[in-house]
Write a structure and sequence with these properties.
The chain folds into 2 domains: about 400 residues, MFS general substrate transporter like domains (Growth Hormone, Chain: A, Up-down Bundle), CATH 1.20.1250.20; about 55 residues. α11 runs antiparallel to α15 and α14 packs antiparallel against α17. It is mainly α. The C terminus is likely disordered. The chain is globular.
């Protein structure tokens, strides 16, 4: 429930933005901050949030994150003006950075029996992959039948259910006295991640040549390199590098980064296609994504309960990347008058199956074998990879789509609706193609990095779960 709340908040507000803009009267230039305010706070504070879970206990951190996220959502829903809405979105990001790592680390430490762990990660992986599509559907329903404010108020209902369940069912874990907060590392990585996310956000709204884009990206890279160097020197590193250096775990982090980047191409541009070309309403666009949600859930169940325990990750993740790439390449054949059932539905199901195979397997192995004292920060690293991947995908694919549209319109009548529609189609097709390239890169990387066979004991990072 908590993971669903955090993931869908990245898309649920997007559907409501036009209504919120009309109601509160903010400009097109300010509109991006409703999305960016959340992603900046969330992405830059995830590793700190994960270490706080290790420091003060996962249950306490989880409950605090739930209460804070619900309060921030209520504040945003009631916001009388643009400024308070942005403050509320930033606060959502802050408490989301506590909540998301605590949720995954609780899953890791609660479910240690192999069959139960497989079931748990199937559900969690399905939510992580499908949350964006669920956000589109829920955002459309709430905006159309209530008001845009309910896209924020709905989090209060989610949080209450999750809080009651967590309070009654989760075991309390005390503070780990062996964990010490790495203050220099926290400052370096938080500033570095902020700069990277902010830089990619500016690439979408300004240009790659803007100092606000390349300057912040360069600063982010320098700060993150300094962070890695410091982790080799610190007595109590924020992110022990042994977490990243295990081959299966490292391959999983890269897979999560790439699937996060590629997922954006599916949700954003297919949403535009179905609304602007096929003429679907926001609600029916959300409904149209449900087969992909079913594909993701099927992929996660099959991956964690059937394939991973028998053949290991090396065949599973590349197969998932290949399916996702095939689905995206097939989407490049979509035309102005394509029918949903025959030309969109099959691609959605295939892409969903592929994404489910990748998400379930990589999220499971990314935290498998982690000692309890590092569970929070390792879980935070998973969420960070997904968040950074989304930022990269947003910037790169939007730029590619815009260039394709501009290139098509050159020398043509820009006042002709048919020409404009074709230009949009060209931009979507370019985005699908490059999203497929991202998945193909994921296929190659996962083939090269994952070990053969079923995962075994990882002696450096604590007891692994024998699959």
């Amino acid at each position: 429930m908590a993971q669903l709340m955090v993931v869908l908040d990245a898309t649920i507000v997007n559907i409501a933005l036009p209504s919120a803009q009309a109601d509160l009267g903010f400009s097109d230039g300010d509109r991006q901050w409703v999305v960016t305010g959340y992603s900046l706070a969330f992405g830059s504070l995830l590793l700190l949030g994960g270490r706080i879970a290790d420091l003060f206990g996962r249950k306490v951190t989880f409950l605090t994150g739930l209460v804070g996220f619900a309060a921030a959502s209520a504040l945003g829903g009631a916001a009388p003006g643009f400024e308070l809405l942005i403050v509320a979105r930033a606060l959502q990001g802050v408490f989301g950075a506590l909540l998301a790592p605590a949720a995954l680390s609780l899953l890791t430490t609660t479910f240690t029996e192999p069959k139960e762990r497989a079931k748990a990660f199937s559900v969690f992986g399905a939510i992580a992959g499908a949350g964006g599509a669920i956000g589109l559907l829920l955002g459309g329903l709430l905006t159309e039948y209530l008001t845009w404010r309910w896209t924020l108020y709905v989090n209060v209902a989610f949080a209450i259910v999750a809080f009651v369940g967590a309070f009654l069912l989760l075991s309390r874990t005390g503070r780990d006295r062996d964990v010490v907060l790495d203050v220099p590392g926290t400052i370096l990585v938080s500033a570095g991640l902020f700069s990277v996310v902010f830089g990619f956000s500016n690439a979408e709204s300004r240009a790659w040549s803007s100092p606000f884009t390349w300057g912040f990206l360069a600063a982010g890279v320098v700060l993150l390199v300094a962070f890695v160097w410091w982790q080799t020197r610190a007595r109590h590193p924020l992110l022990p590098l042994r977490i990243l250096t295990d081959r299966n775990r490292g391959a999983s982090f890269v897979s999560i980064l790439l699937i996060g980047a590629g997922m954006f191409g599916v949700f954003l541009f297919l949403t535009y296609y179905m609304q602007q070309i096929l003429g679907l309403t926001p609600v029916w666009t959300g409904v149209a994504f449900l087969p992909m949600v079913a594909g993701i859930m099927t992929g996660t169940i099959v991956a964690n309960n059937v394939l991973l325990p028998r053949i290991g990750p090396k065949p599973v993740v590349p197969a998932g990347m290949a399916l996702a790439a095939i689905g995206l390449l097939w989407m490049t054949t979509l035309e102005l008058h394509s029918a949903y059932l025959t030309h969109v539905l099959p691609q959605l199901v295939i892409t969903g199956l592929g994404m489910g195979l990748v998400m379930a397997t990589s999220m499971n192995l990314a935290v498998s074998g982690i000692g309890p004292h590092d569970a929070g920060v390792a879980s935070a690293a998973v969420n960070t990879m997904q968040q950074i991947g989304g930022s990269i995908g947003t910037a790169l694919l939007t730029t590619i789509a815009t260039s394709a549209s501009t290139g098509y319109l050159t020398g043509r009548n820009v006042n002709d609706p048919a020409v404009l529609a074709r230009a949009s189609l060209e931009s979507y097709s370019a985005a699908y193609t490059w999203t497929a390239v991202i998945f193909i890169v994921g296929l190659v990387v996962s083939v090269l990095l994952y070990r053969r066979g079923v995962p075994r004991q990882d002696t450096e990072s604590g007891p692994a779960i024998h699959m």
